Amino acid sequence: MLRFDGRVVIVTGAGNGLGKEYALAFGERGASVVVNDLGGSTSGDGSKSSRPADEVVDLIKSRGGKAVADYHSVEDAKAVIQTAIDNFGRVDILVNNAGILRDKSFVNMTEQDWDLVHRIHLRAAYLLTHAAWPYMRKQKYGKVIVTSSTSGLYGNFGQANYSAAKMGLVGLSNTLSLEGAKYNITCNAIAPTAFSRLTQDLLPPGAEENLKPAFVMPLVLYLCHESCADTGSLFEVAGGWMGKVRLQKSSGAMVRRANAPMTVEDVRDNWQEIVSFAKPLYHLTQADQVTHIMNAVESISNTDQGNSNVLTETFTYTPNQLILYALAVGCSLRQPNALRFLYENHENFSALPTFAVIPAQSLSMAIVSSGKMGIDIDLSRVLHGEQYVELYQPLPTSGTVTLKGKVVDVLDKGSGAVVIYDVEMFDENDTLIALNQFVIFSVGSGGFGGKKVSEHQRPTVAAPKRKPDHVCSDKTTIDQAALYRLTGDENPLHIDPAFASTAGFSRPILHGLCTFGHSARHVLSTYANDDPALFKAIKVRFTKPVEPGQTIETHMWREGNRIFFESKVPESSQTVLTGGYVDLHNVVLNTTSPGAPQEMSKTTPTSSRVNLKTKAAFVEINKRAQSQPELVKKIGAIIVFDITKDGNVQQSWTIDGKKGTIYEGSPQEGAKAQVTITVDDDDFVDLATGKANAPALFAKGKIRAKGNVMLAQKLSTLFKDQAKL
Ligand SMILES: CCCCCCC[C@@H](O)CC(=O)SCCNC(=O)CCNC(=O)[C@H](O)C(C)(C)COP(=O)(O)OP(=O)(O)OC[C@H]1O[C@@H](n2cnc3c(N)ncnc32)[C@H](O)[C@@H]1OP(=O)(O)O
């Protein structure tokens, strides 16, 4: 039998319920008991009575135990502890049990309700333990219990004050267990459910039998016994069941990447991992938690993704590879601007933006065969499903890039499995320069019961339902696939008739990324004057195979800076690429490209009469203004340049008709300086090229600067001196 002979215990709120049960049990097992009870009501008001404490003391004594009554409020903590010292000369065990309720829905809760509950539960536990602490430290022995609640752990309607105080007690206990360890003082928290004066109105009928305080008492006594070393623990206990409660967290995700800004979208894109409890973590100490974070942070530089699934590889290329790629996707000296992609000594020698797929693709085989997908894939039946590429800066024309790739999802599409993997590309300074998302369709690998859609998949976007604004086409050669495979994708599907036939094709098919490269080039040529710096992103789905020798016809629709496209093969009348779009930083029409000017006349209304009443109208004006500078002359414009907090210049502009302002890109909040340029009927600004007669505008007082004087002056001088905005 576990006994407490020689131990002095204080039980607060011991006149009834749980406290009474503890006090009687301690008394029975040899402890000297201070039976503290103010004798008040459950809400803490009304008259006080010494009767409850006296009755418990009498009972203990009648059973041969030692006990003394204490009628102080728990807020009068020193006096409570003094009762133990005066009567028994020490204090070994403190059970913080007293409590009151002031239940109210949050909207009706008063400060008084909040404060009183906090004072009696949390503050009094602090005061009492604080008053007992020096005695316990000195004698190098102490057992403290705080009473938390499931209302704190899980929340309970109408108990905002009580729940908060009860969780506060868990925090108090956690820290006291650490501070007391050196002095052999333990501190534990319990979250009991028992039928008592306090809970009788809350518990369902019949609860009395099963939720007796006697079913909680044994845990408390055991925790207070010298043979129990547990400390800093929290227990739920009710009806004879008891268990330990601990905090668990998801294994989470490191969403920060090396040398890349951390964004809200990073959080969104990793949400599944952040909230998944599939592999929970438990940290028992603050040190564990700090170590975990430090390891996670370190892993950014080790794996640059904080994720062990990340595969890393480097890829070195020379201008020759850029040229080979350009030829493989149909670049030809017949085209006006092709030289910049085909001649390494050209003053603007550049990589085609879609060359970004080539280094990234080098990681494909490693990723697909890494076993991280959880399904078996038959490599002879793998088709390219979709591709997304985003460039953060133009690609270097040579050098070594580092690739980091990982599988982000595997989908079950019934007829096949879809594997989605992201590959990030970093330059030699570890700066993120491109993101590729590959979507691979593995024919026949479906039906494994996996999910059907992925929030990580970059969506395709349907083209507008009108005739295309522009069409470009290229006839591929019979050797197109043979040429393209030299860029790095050596899949025999594209060259070996026997392999192609195993995969179910009558002859080798063209690489999906070769078709993709052709179409991307068509868009770049038509809408970006072949300038790779204007390219932002591209997405497409491969819907039908293309055979070498067939024609790739790219149908394009422009909406602002987004060019929608679909590609068709006239020989088979099939649409081979769907849902495609290219996002450009700016549209610049290539007037040397046959057909481009016609596109403008086809889609741009010539009328300058527009309804300015709605925002949609403003947007429309803006679109027209960009393509028709003369319009701007008629309706006027305000261009605002902001210097942002971090020193960047941002441009926003307002088409300012007779009825006022508005337009996208409102002036930057917190801008340090701002330059506003007002353009009227008699001024000329070509918004398509950004050129204006700035000195003339300045002379007319139409360039105004405000904000930080130095910066504003600098900015306005800049625009005065330079005619190009
Ligand atoms: C080793 C590692 C890496 C390898 C990388 C790749 C290497 C390259 O060398 C390989 C290539 O280049 S292959 C050539 C390019 N690709 C192609 O030609 C594929 C053309 N597409 C098809 O044939 C069919 O769309 C097909 C067969 C893909 C799907 O057709 P169906 O089975 O008829 O599917 P359908 O009934 O239309 O749709 C079923 C569900 O699948 C989704 N889906 C369809 N096409 C998809 C595609 N292309 N990509 C992604 N998902 C696709 C549909 O949306 C549908 O899903 P849900 O039911 O959820 O709507």
CATH superfamily of the largest domain, by name, is Hotdog Thioesterase
Q: Class by helix and strand content?
A: alpha+beta
> Which outline best applies?
elongated
Q: What is the residue-averaged pLDDT?
A: 82
CATH class of the largest domain: Alpha Beta
Number of domains: 4
Query: Biggest sheet, open or closed, and with what strands and sense?
Result: 10 strands, antiparallel
Please summarize what this structure is.
By secondary structure, the protein is α+β, with helices and mostly antiparallel strands.
What does this structure look like?
It is a single chain. The chain is of the alpha+beta class. It folds into 4 domains: 8-245, NAD(P)-binding Rossmann-like Domain (Rossmann fold, 3-Layer(aba) Sandwich); 264-308, no CATH class; 312-584, Thiol Ester Dehydrase, Chain A, CATH 3.10.129.10; 613-718, 2-Layer Sandwich (Nonspecific Lipid-transfer Protein, Chain A). 32% of the residues lie in helices and 23% in strands. A 10-stranded antiparallel β-sheet has the order 9-11-12-13-10-15-18-17-16-14. An 8-stranded mixed β-sheet has the order 3-2-1-4-5-6-7-8, sandwiched between helices. A 4-stranded antiparallel β-sheet has the order 20-19-21-24. α1 links the parallel β1 (8-11) and β2. α1 runs parallel beside α2 (51-62). The structure holds 3R-hydroxydecanoyl-coenzyme A. 3R-hydroxydecanoyl-coenzyme A binds at residues 364-365, 368, 379, 382-386, 413, 415-416, 418, 439-441, 443, 452, 489, 491, 493, 509, 511-512, 541-545. It is found in: Peroxisome. It comes from Adineta ricciae (Rotifer). One of its GO terms (biological process) is fatty acid beta-oxidation. Residues 7-193 form the Ketoreductase domain. Pathway: Lipid metabolism; fatty acid beta-oxidation.
